[in-house]
Amino acid sequence: MVVSERMLKWAMRFYPPLLFQRIWVVNIDKGFTGVQVKIKRSFLNKNYNSSIFGGTIFSAADPFYPVLFHQLLSKKGYKLKVWSKSSSIHYLKPGLSDLYFKINLSDDDIANAEAVLNTGGKYMAHHPIDIYNKDGEICVSVMNEIYLRNLNFTDVSL
């Protein structure tokens, strides 16, 4: 379903798996080219060491690349299946404060995805996310592998 940036922001803010983990979508950029996310540290997501639970951080990083690609390319007329195919996460420092990250899709990212979808029907690529604490220090580094499938693609070489 294609929606506006504002509607998607509010839908994701109140989506229960994000809401109850205190994952807050701060902003979605015009044209779905980026998103800013805050992970609020609270009693709902603190672990034994009083830092943000790793599962909360992982949950925050998981959906945004697929959602951005889906919205952006659907607005361009693509019919897609989209998901996070795999992810790796490296916890560098404990999340003892609120955490923040921003994702940006560059024009090259978008053009590359479109070229691959139009010629091969399937796009798979790794996209990084660095998650920062309030002091600007990287606490977590995530690498998401995104899978897009163009449902309208037909291989003309057959």
Order of H and E elements = HHEEHHEEHEE
Count the DSSP helices: 5
Widest sheet: strand ordering? 1-2-4
What is the terminal-to-terminal distance? 32 Å
CATH superfamily: Hotdog Thioesterase
Q: Within the CATH hierarchy, at the fold level, what is the topology?
A: Thiol Ester Dehydrase, Chain A
The domain count comes to: 1
Q: Which CATH C-level class is it?
A: Alpha Beta
| Class of secondary structure makeup | alpha+beta
**Spatial extent as radius of gyration:** 17 Å
- Average pLDDT taken over every residue: 95
Q: Beta-sheet strand percentage?
A: 25-35%
What's the architecture in CATH terms? Roll
Please summarize the sheet with the most strands: 3 strands, antiparallel
Helix content: 25-40%
Residue runs with pLDDT of under 50 for 5 or more positions = none
Q: How many individual β-strands?
A: 6
Shape: elongated
